[in-house]
Amino acid sequence: MPDYFRHHPDSKGFFGEHGGAFLPPELEEHFREITEAYLLISKSHKFISELRSIRKHYQGRPTPVYFAERLSELVGGCRIYLKREDLNHTGAHKLNHCMGEGLLARFMGKKKLIAETGAGQHGVALATAAAYFGLECEIHMGEVDMEKEHPNVIRMRLLGATVIPVREGARTLKEAVDSAFGSYLSQPETALYGIGSVVGPHPFPMLVRDFQRVVGIEAREQYQEMTGELPDALCACVGGGSNAIGLFSAFLDDECEIFGVEPIGISTKAGEHAATMTYGMPGVIHGFRSYLLQDDDGNPAPVYSIASGLDYPGVGPEHAYFKDTGRIQYETASDEDCLDAFFTLSRTEGIIPALESAHAVAFAMRWAREHRFSSILVNLSGRGDKDLDFVTEKYGFGEEHK
Ligand SMILES: *Cc1c(COP(=O)(O)O)cnc(C)c1O
User: Closest Cα partner for 376 from 230, 255, 254, 252?
Assistant: First the structure.
């Protein structure tokens, strides 16, 4: 796909039929300004070198690629490699785009960053960026998630952010997005919406992807240096799709099979999973067109996953495009698969993954059992510290996963 990134998205923000910017008229001008500012700074030497310096000296990049030898043996010999985004400052890949958004906000003269958060990882990452750049920060979070991910609520407050509890509907990620967007609507002159994934109206799916591309660029080089070749397959969990697109974007022209892994939760029944690609239909949510889990009236359906960061009824438009073109395959992992991978990776490798990332590990283990002589590179998007209380109180210490 030569020149893929130059032509995707197109000038209106579309990836094939997905994406775009479906905005209230009063926001159109503001989004045009954000697009222009981003296109300007993304070509600026000063911006690129400042971002590069932040990544190296503040975030701790490059993060390593690691050969998970004991896990590989356990599943029958297929070589499993992990891109260690869990070792990023704040413990997940999200800081990659949050520092970019912070830099953009400062360039545009904004005073405040506003966003929603699911598991709290995005809120923590954005609050971190706000502290770094000396900006105010307002994070909207569903009450259910606030309880489940309490340590992250404390972190955000320590970092100086205001956390706004969202009490509507299912009180999780979707309602938090609605609430944060409402707040942004009242102050677009002084605030920048710091979207947490490759979702939302143009230009966010593009700019978040661009900020995450560092993951794939590093990983491809590191993998080649370690092995002299490229992996046979790649996989990453897909909530909105930012960690996945970050890794995948460097391998689109290669022969690797690419798998996005969505949460099938408890069952395939509506409301008990968040497998948007598998069960969704095209629709518009939060200002962009993509696949969407919808109820009979076309409204976003209730969704569920054990991993708060994955329970979103939409998905990034670029993923929808890659589903349509067939370049990326979308598979699922259940709560049970996820827990098995969570305990197994902890015991075999000494790495406690985020529940989100454990979905990708679960798929890799399944794929590995069927491809003994192959290799797979997994994006380990985050660490599991935030999930420890929830998992151990509910499921113990995984003795049966030995
Ligand atoms: C938020 C989060 C995700 C899901 O977001 P994507 O945009 O799909 O990457 C995955 N893993 C971790 C650790 C997260 O915090």
Answer: 230
57-91+206-401 CATH fold: Rossmann fold (3.40.50)
Both tokens assigned to 371: 């491809």
Nearest Cα residue to atom 10 of ligand 1: 356
Residues with a known catalytic role: 94, 116, 381
What is the C-alpha separation between 384 and 100, in angstroms, rounded?
24
Element (H, E) at 333: strand 329-334
Ligand 1 atom having least distance to the Cα of 246: 9
Q: Is the CB of 305 under 6 A from ligand 1?
A: no
Confidence of residue 402 (pLDDT cuts 50, 70, 90): low
User: Ligand 1, atom 15: nearest CA belongs to which residue?
Assistant: 121
Q: 222: CA distance to ligand 1 center in Å? A: 22
Are both 57-91+206-401 and 95-195 of the same fold?
yes
How many Cβ atoms sit within 10 Å of the Cβ of residue 144? 18
Q: Average pLDDT of the chain?
A: 95
* CATH number given to 95-195: 3.40.50.1100
CA distance 361 to 46: 38
Q: What pLDDT does residue 8 have? A: 97
Q: Residue 87 pLDDT > 80, yes or no?
A: yes
Query: Is the overall model pTM greater than 0.70, yes or no?
Result: yes
Low-confidence winner among 1-5, 119-123, 252-256, 367-371 (lowest mean pLDDT): 1-5
Segments making up each domain of the chain, as ranges? 57-91+206-401, 95-195
> Residues of 17-40 as b/e, b for ≥16 C-beta within 10 angstroms?
ebbbbebeeebeebbeebbebbee
User: Is 119's C-beta closer than 6 angstroms to any atom of ligand 1?
Assistant: yes
